[in-house]
Amino acid sequence: MKKQNENLTDAAILRQKAEEILKARKDKSPLVSDASNADTLKLIHELQVHQIELEMQNEELVIAKEKAELAEEKYTELYDFAPSGYLSLTKEGVIAELNFVAARMLGQERSKLTKKRFDFSLSIDTQTTFNLFLHDIFTSKVKQSCEVTIATEGNLPIYVTIEGIVSQNGELCSLTLIDITKRILAEEQLRFQAHIIDNSPVIAAYHDKDLNMQWANKAYQKTTGLSLEEIKGRKCYEVWNLSKPCRGCPVIAAIETGVNAAHELTPDNQEHWPETQGYWLSQAAPVRDKQGVIIGATEFAIDITERKNAERLIQGKSEEIAAQNEELKQANVELIAAKEHAEESDRLKSAFLTNMSHEIRTPMNGILGFSELLKEPGLTGERQQEYIRIIEKSGARMLNIINDIVDISKIEANLMNVDIKDSNINEIMEFIYIFFKPQVEEKGMHFRFKNSLPTKEAIIRTDSEKVYSILTNLVKNAIKYSREGEIEFGYLKKDDFLEFYVKDTGIGIPNDRQEAIFKRFIQADIEDRMAYKGAGLGLAITKAYVGMLGGKIWVESEEGIGSTFYFTLPYNSEPKKETIDPQPASSEKNDTIRKLKILVAEDDEVSEMLLDVTVKMFGKEILKARTGIEAIEACRNNADIDLILMDIRMPDMGGYEATKQIREFNREVIIIAQTAYGLTGDRDKAIEAGCNDYIAKPINKIEIQALIQKYFGE
Ligand code: ADP
After folding, report:
1. DSSP secondary structure, 215-251, as one string
2. Residue owning the nearest CA to atom 3 of ligand 1
3. Rg (alpha carbons) of the chain, rounded to whole number
4. Considering the entire predicted model, what is its pTM?
5. Which one of 105, 213, 341, 497 has the lowest number of neighbouring Cβ atoms within 10 Å?
6. Which residues line ligand 1 (CB under 6 A)?
């Protein structure tokens, strides 16, 4: 009604304006009026007014049309270039109309898209979502929305949110497409990052600037055994059950300094950190707000326990390897030395063989040659005695050489054992004196010895057999290389060693040979060398023995005046409390021996004969036994036997066993074992079995005499 009124008013205004315009036109060219035809005039007037009205309306329409065209242009521009895509779809999902943005999203020209199905441009997994959405639009008639992915050939997928509503006629629907690809990708990225951090074996956390923990990943929760809720708001060191923050804490450092920090948190550098919590490498980075103010720090830490253990293992291993290397180096040095030694030995081998062959052949020659001569008929007794003496000497020389060869071979093969035990030096000295006295006196020379310590202080820990050998060699040489004068031997205590000497008034040794004589096969450069007959091994053996016992050997000598050989032995005795012989012994000792009852236990006839003859001078009665059992028997039946010379190897029962059994009923009888082996250790075995002493075969007259003197001298 109101509208109608308004229209009427507009029409009245239009009529009024048209009337005014007509009046103005008539004033300019007045119309000849015919008063008689008033109706006609009125009609003309009406027509004219109407014409003007039409003209005016036309003008307005032109303006309105222009306005409408302008508006349409603006609308089209807006429609086409709006930031969102616009589409009109039929119920079947066919595109009726779409703007440029929508066409660009679908990756084709607009003209090619109309009349095509929209869902064909969607990824397969979102097509169903879209079709449901389309169905809902047309059935519910209210605004619907969904998210789909536009997946067109050759283009990256575009994620879009679609809002749609059915249009007024109900045949079409209008869709608005908003590109949310950036948001979806950003969300995806965030999800990935969160996934990575949560599933990382590295423990990660965020601490605010007051060091309260605000977030921790799953690894952190698992390691501490606490849930995120339990961790949140607590101090890191509390979460780790520690009494205070760690020294060098990287989170504190990052918050305080504003730069990244790293630190190893281990029981080694944190006294409050238990070993069970392992070794950690922690790194922290400061976090700032938009204004750049530090608001906290992120922390990432990795468990380096295994690495540390491995490092320790490697360290241990490398030390082991270094030690092995050192050992190898040492072994190398030793091998080089051994190689050089082997080469040297090789060189000396031929010299050795030449020497030995000569040394053995010479006495053999003597023995065989003179044995042959003995057979000659009509030999005078004097001649016979002379030949026998030569045979005897050659035999002794041969035995010496064999003994020396055995000894030097053992030394070189490193088979010579050292048997250290309490040894009475004074006893050894006395034995040597008794042993060599006849030989020295036979040469018309004086023989003396001097013990400088009382017996209780003369016991040192050494290998007594080696000491015997050393002194024997030196005294033997003194006798061998002297024609007149005297031989004296003895020892002095100096600091923590005993210094022994063997002094002679013999031929002496030239200065330039005084070192060389201690080497194998070396003899001093003496003119009538052959006169002294030696293999040149004695001093080499002696020197080796002295070395084995921890001493030194040297010589002081003057040609034509004499020589003094010195050697030292470590003095390492504990003085014995019991005093047996308070006075040091000297050469002035009574050597008369009472006549003895002797049992010779020996299965070999020749040896037995030899022994028989040798001991005859000391015996008032000599009994014989061929086996160990016979020896025990003889001993049982003769309680007054003074001495048994016990062979070690006999049929039925050996000498050691026989001795053991004799000792069960007779502890007094002196038993001296005799063996043919001449090896180190024989003496010990004999003593262990219950023998008093030991003698090596072939039994030397002087040696046995010395032993008898030792046990029965008065
Ligand atoms: P051998 O006496 O068998 O030749 P040794 O090794 O015992 O061998 O001695 C080596 C050399 O040292 C002897 O050949 C000799 O020239 C010299 N010699 C050893 N002892 C004496 C000594 N007391 N007086 C002089 N020369 C000696």
Report:
1. EE-HHHHHHHT--HHHHTTSBHHHHTT-SSPPTT-HH
2. 534
3. 66
4. 0.43
5. 341
6. 477-478, 481, 504, 506-509, 517, 523-524, 526, 534-540, 563
